[in-house]
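Quick one:
INPUT:
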């Protein structure tokens, strides 16, 4: 009975069809005769090719492949819009499983090596099941535009590869934004208590802080990076949760937890200080501006915002900052950077913590943008073009080594410049559209309900990450892109569920 209804379910059939088309559009390298093997059902040779080849999959870089990929992508985005069959199934266990998966994902994002990935995969799997059999609420116009921004972040890099062939690995991170869409469809129909979610945020802040302290004692590195690929990723997420903990105050009426958000926020701030991530500092003025000028945000705090309270708070933060790796790195970078910028001093790549290499990369990126504004240079060619600019004396060498003139860098240390340089003006517009739609979505939810923590958390997260993007290429790192896409989509879905009546 179940299987009979399964194969009459339009959503299921559309999903299977789109997966088959998607698989066909990326299957096989340019050298392999993979279609010939499939037609002749030569499974043994296919498996041998898969085990021996590094290019079993490729980007859709031919007209037929990009056509199949586009059809497949269009079918995927249409799945949530199809009506469910009349038969209904029991879905009471989904909320419980989802709540625990959210807890595991957030608590493990910086404290484990792979658990957060497993939690995200399971969440994706059950969200697809829910989407096929249970999801029934209609989407508002705002939601459709919001989700389309996630879809475009996923789709355009593949479309761009038709014009400039790219290594598939360079576009892997964009797929996470597609995966976030069914997760939204799952969570938007579930109500999770705000106080429960605030506990998760504060537990995450505390966990991040404790693990940062552990790594600082157990590893010789001066900059704590934990299980991330760079200390910047650890610092960005740690500082974000520190601020979110402070924003969650006032809701804990139990005597034991009264000051828990303040303690968790300070410990997460200390975790950030151990990473030496200077670029994360940019969100602190943003947070302080929001705090000082928003009466609604200030009302979240347990204590009255008087001079004495503010002074004590800033003194604690100043002590942590003055003793931090961040402060030491800023001091180290001052002399060489100032000499190079204002006194025509020579730059040596061995200068500790100098800002000059990053400024050089940014100059090279702007040169690339001016030369290739429409399509960019492709997502695999950034390092090669930096080397060409160095050889043409348009920028100085990043390293004084003939083999490593551009230090092997394949990203611009700035998401806006990186996207523009690699994918051109359209890619840049899509990135801005993604940020704008998140800002618009959370702003509307906040206006409709100023007490909704989910809208505040989402708004502050997108503001923070749009600021991080000035000094960090979020989409070039698996952990950053996964956290950004999934955390934003989780709080967006919860914010949407929290607002019962909305005018779009």
């Amino acid at each position: 009975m179940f299987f009979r209804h399964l194969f009459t379910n339009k959503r299921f059939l559309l999903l299977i069809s789109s997966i088959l088309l998607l698989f066909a559009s990326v299957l096989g390298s340019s050298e392999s005769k993979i279609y010939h093997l499939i037609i002749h059902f030569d499974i043994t040779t296919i498996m041998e090719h898969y085990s021996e080849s590094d290019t079993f999959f490729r980007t859709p870089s031919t007209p037929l492949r990009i056509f199949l990929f586009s059809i497949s992508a269009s079918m995927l985005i249409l799945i949530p819009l199809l009506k469910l069959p009349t038969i209904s199934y029991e879905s009471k266990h989904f909320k419980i499983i989802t709540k625990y998966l959210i807890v595991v994902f957030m608590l493990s994002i910086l404290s484990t090596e792979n658990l957060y990935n497993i939690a995200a995969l399971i969440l994706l799997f059950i969200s697809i099941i829910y989407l096929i059999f249970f999801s029934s609420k209609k989407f508002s116009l705002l939601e459709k535009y919001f989700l389309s921004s996630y879809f475009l972040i996923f789709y355009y890099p593949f479309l761009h590869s038709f014009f400039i062939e790219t290594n598939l690995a360079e576009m892997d991170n964009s797929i996470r934004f597609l995966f976030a869409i069914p997760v939204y469809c799952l969570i938007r129909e579930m109500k999770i208590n705000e106080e429960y979610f605030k506990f998760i945020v504060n537990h995450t802040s505390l966990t991040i802080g404790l693990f940062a302290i552990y790594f600082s004692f157990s590893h010789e590195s001066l900059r704590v990076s934990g299980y991330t690929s760079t200390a910047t990723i650890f610092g960005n997420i740690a500082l974000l949760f520190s601020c979110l903990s402070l924003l969650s105050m006032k809701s804990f009426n139990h005597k034991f937890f009264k000051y828990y958000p303040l303690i968790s926020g300070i410990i997460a701030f200390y975790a950030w200080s151990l990473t030496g991530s200077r670029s994360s500092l940019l969100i602190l003025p943003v947070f302080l501006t929001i705090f000082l000028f928003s009466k609604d945000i200030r009302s979240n705090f347990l204590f009255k915002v008087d001079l004495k309270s503010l002074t004590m708070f800033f003194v604690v933060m100043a002590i942590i900052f003055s003793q931090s790796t961040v402060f030491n790195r800023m001091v180290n970078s001052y002399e060489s950077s100032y000499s190079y910028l204002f006194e025509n001093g020579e730059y040596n790549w061995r200068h500790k913590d100098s800002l000059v290499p990053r400024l050089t990369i940014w100059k090279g990126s702007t040169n690339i943008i001016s030369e290739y504004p429409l399509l960019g240079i492709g997502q695999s060619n950034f390092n090669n073009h930096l080397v060409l600019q160095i050889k043409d004396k348009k920028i100085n060498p990043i390293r004084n080594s003939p083999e490593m003139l551009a230090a092997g860098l394949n990203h611009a240390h700035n998401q806006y410049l990186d996207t523009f340089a690699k994918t051109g003006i359209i890619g840049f517009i899509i990135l801005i559209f993604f940020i704008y739609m998140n800002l618009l979505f959370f702003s509307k939810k906040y206006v409709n309900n100023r007490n909704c923590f989910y809208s505040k958390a989402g708004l502050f997260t997108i503001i923070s990450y749009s600021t991080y993007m000035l000094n960090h290429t979020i989409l070039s790192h698996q952990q950053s892109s996964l956290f950004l896409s999934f955390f934003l989509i989780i709080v967006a879905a919860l914010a949407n569920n929290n607002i019962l009546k909305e005018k779009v």
